Request: fold
Amino acid sequence: MKIVGKFVGFVGLALLFAGCQSGNAVSESFSERTGFAYNAPSEGFFNVRTVYEGKIPPGMVYIDVMTTVKGVNSDPVSSPSNNPKRRISNSGYFIDQFEITNLNWREYVAWLSGVYVNDPRRIVLALPDETVWRKALAYNEPYVQNYYSHVAYGFYPVVGVTFKQAQAYCEWRTDRVNEYELINQGLIEFKDLKTIAENLKNNPDSAHLYVFTTDFARQYVIAAQRNMKSSLTCEDLDLDGVLFDSKFRLPTEAEWEYAAYGIEAVDGNIEETQTYPWKGEQLRSFGVKKTDGQFYANFMRGRGDFIGNNMNGTYTMPVNSFMPNAYGLYNMAGNVNEWVLDVYRATTNEVVEEYNSFRGNVYESDSVYAESILNKLPSLDPVMRDSMRNVLLRERGFAMTGGDYRDYKDGDRRSALGDSVLRMENATPIERANMISNTVHIYKGGSWRDRAIWLNPANRRYLNENKCTDDIGFRCAMSSVGGKNDN
Reply:
């Protein structure tokens, strides 16, 4: 009997231990820490969403977390030496399957033209520079007149846009996809652009109540609910899982480079690399009957040779041309170069983070961050809001300044003047003008006018954020929150 008793006791302890290890302690209906029920006013006090289903942004592909070797991967004699090899890791993220097209950009300008009809400056600043096609010794006027606006070029990549314009498009796209989600959820009503423009003209100081922006989503929804005679209050409003988790932005160089190769990770690691976004060293497809002899990308093959096999174009091509890489991404080599988020430096191993590598951070001031915290609280009158802001700034220790880390530990020689190693922060205005500045950003991928060397995703060039060309476009990215979600 004693043996049986001990055996039963052992089994009981084993089952208890197994129960603790099974994860059953995490509940979606009540708190495992206090016992109070969730979302039950008569039994608890905490309303919360416990089931998370990540949204997949329209037109995007998910790129899983990874560890890989970034940087030069070809013959150093023929390869630019401004991107040395280094191992990095990156969080999961989304990236556009296709480059942003002329049609996408015309939609953007059409929205601006409808909403800001009384503020034409916003519209003019968003227009691409069509004169980028002009060359002193070439007749390209048909491209100047037609490339951006003609229906025949609707699905060609937009060019003539600066880095700053590309960023503005990402912000606009964030607001529009979130606005669309709120309309679908019945939280706001669709407003035609003429109505928005009239409201904006009559109430310019309350723009956030008439023009939806993600940063003021809560206030916008509450105002809309009030107009819809709803009893919903700011305290009841939970937009987590309704809005997209992150904002659209340009991809970082590390994200873009990894996505371009399209090599699937095994257990989060990449054990090999390749020269192009496709396997092998060849620029043509061989051995596949359907595509035999065709080029993998749109690029300049030799002096004066812009036209490859089975092409119906000379410069850019529709964004779904050629074969996608293993991630399903099109034209990660050729067609047009693409802006990435980083400011340019001849990166050295000593100044690069090993996780989510990026140079270009400019943090908002803590006082601005304090405002974002106050926006999450129940409605506060102006006096109380000022008081709570002081609590955050003084008692919590928030500073009034943010941080600009674009030239953090910048001492590499390629960014310096002459033979001296000079940091940007210590440079005079004349010295800064001769150095790679904080307004110069990287572009990658090669284009219709480039030789094959630039099709290697590791290679990089740079241009001022306010300049544009006829061979630089872009695609958007979005950070993933909560990791991969099959939904």
Observations:
- The radius of gyration is 27 Å.
